[in-house]
């Protein structure tokens, strides 16, 4: 009985240690990739900014759910967010269904410019329900510009 308790305790402590090492490594990698902008992720978003950014979040939701016929259609409808649609340029791997989660982290607007941080996961499946492609726990930062009274994503950045 004592051996079992010791084994479970060692296993638990090892797991905690390994998880903390991975998360520290992951954070260091993110800081290195995003540079000074990574500090923004720790700032809380004001209620006013969140309300201002809501149309961008709605467009993101539509992009992640969309199945455009081709890249041109995706770009026309979603601009820079076409990258997050379910268009795949491979006739042998056409997605039929998708699952995604988008988590708002923070954002800020200032005059006609701003940014937004999101974390997302997504999966695309073929007609047989087989996974074609997927991403998990991806942080992304989007630069925004206000044009004609509407926020537009002008660039996206996420670690490879």
The low-pLDDT segments are 17-22
Characterize the quaternary organization of these chains.
single chain
Count, helices: 3
Order of helices and strands: HHHEEEE
Q: Between the first and last Cα atoms, what is the distance in angstroms?
A: 47 Å
Over all CA atoms, what is the radius of gyration? Answer: 20 Å
Record field, number of beta strands: 4
The fraction of residues in strands falls at 25-35%
Shape: globular
Structural class: alpha+beta
Taking the sheet with the most strands, its summary is: 4 strands, antiparallel
Average predicted confidence as pLDDT = 86
| Lateral strand order in the biggest sheet | 1-2-3-4
How would you describe this protein?
- The chain has 160 residues and is of the alpha+beta class.
- It is built from three helices and four strands, in the order αααββββ.
- A four-stranded antiparallel beta sheet has the order 1-2-3-4, covered by helices on one side.
- The N and C termini lie far apart (47 Å).
- The model is unreliable at 17-22 (pLDDT under 50).
Layout of strands and helices, then pairs:
Elements: H1 2-34, H2 47-65, H3 71-78, E1 97-110, E2 113-125, E3 131-147, E4 150-158
Antiparallel strand pairs: 1-2, 2-3, 3-4
Can I get a quick summary?
The protein has helices spanning 2-34, 47-65, 71-78; strands spanning 97-110, 113-125, 131-147, 150-158. The chain has 160 residues and is α+β, with helices and mostly antiparallel strands.
List key phrases describing it.
160 residues, 4 strands, globular
């Amino acid at each position: 009985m004592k051996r079992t308790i010791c084994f479970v305790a060692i296993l638990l402590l090892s797991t905690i240690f390994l998880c903390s090492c991975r998360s520290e490594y992951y954070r260091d990698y993110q800081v290195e990739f995003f540079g000074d902008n990574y500090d923004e992720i720790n700032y809380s978003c004001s209620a006013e900014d969140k309300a201002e950014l809501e149309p961008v979040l709605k467009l993101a939701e539509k992009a992640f759910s969309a199945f455009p016929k081709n890249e041109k259609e995706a770009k026309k409808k979603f601009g820079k967010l076409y990258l997050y649609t379910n268009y795949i340029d491979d006739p042998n791997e056409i997605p039929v269904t998708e699952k995604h989660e988008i988590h708002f982290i923070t954002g800020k607007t200032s005059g006609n410019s701003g940014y937004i941080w999101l974390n997302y996961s997504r999966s695309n499946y073929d007609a047989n329900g087989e996974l074609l492609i997927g991403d998990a726990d991806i942080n992304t930062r989007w630069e925004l510009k206000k044009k004609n009274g509407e926020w537009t994503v002008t660039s996206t950045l996420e670690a490879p």
